[in-house]
């Protein structure tokens, strides 16, 4: 296996991740029923997001936190949901890549999950 080094690697990773996450019993409904994401529009944004984070190419424009507050209002995004998201992310990363950027991908996802969980919880209180 190789490290995450190119846009193609990021796209492969994100595609593999979404293949799993939208089918997940615990969190899939957030994507399919609550947010009703259109993968043809959503995935390119996620490619840009992760390319910016993992490869340092500033191609992502947006406010990911803001997109999650309306979802949280419909159905609470709880710590257990972020933990599952992270579990699927880690497995997907480790199943397909190895190297320095792999550890970065997991560390960054962990930080994202913690911050999102904290902010979503505070928004409900």
UniProtKB/TrEMBL annotation:
SUPFAM superfamilies: Globin-like (SSF46458). GO terms for molecular function: heme binding; metal ion binding; oxygen binding. Transmembrane segments: none annotated. InterPro entries: Globin-like_sf, Globin/Proto, Hemoglobin_trunc. Keywords: Heme, Iron, Metal-binding, Transport. Gene3D superfamilies: Globins. This is Hemoglobin. It comes from Epilithonimonas zeae.
């Amino acid at each position: 296996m190789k490290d995450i080094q190119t846009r193609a690697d990021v796209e492969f990773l994100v595609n593999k991740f979404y293949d799993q996450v939208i089918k997940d019993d615990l969190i899939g409904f957030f994507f399919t029923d609550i947010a009703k994401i259109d993968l043809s529009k959503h995935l390119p944004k996620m490619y840009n997001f992760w390319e910016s984070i993992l490869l340092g190419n500033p191609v992502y424009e947006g406010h990911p936190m803001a997109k999650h507050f309306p979802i949280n209002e419909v159905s609470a995004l709880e710590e257990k949901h972020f933990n599952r998201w992270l579990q699927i992310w880690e497995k997907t990363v480790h199943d397909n890549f190895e190297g320095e950027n792999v550890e970065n991908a997991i560390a960054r996802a962990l930080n994202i999950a913690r911050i999102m969980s904290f902010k979503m919880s505070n928004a409900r209180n």
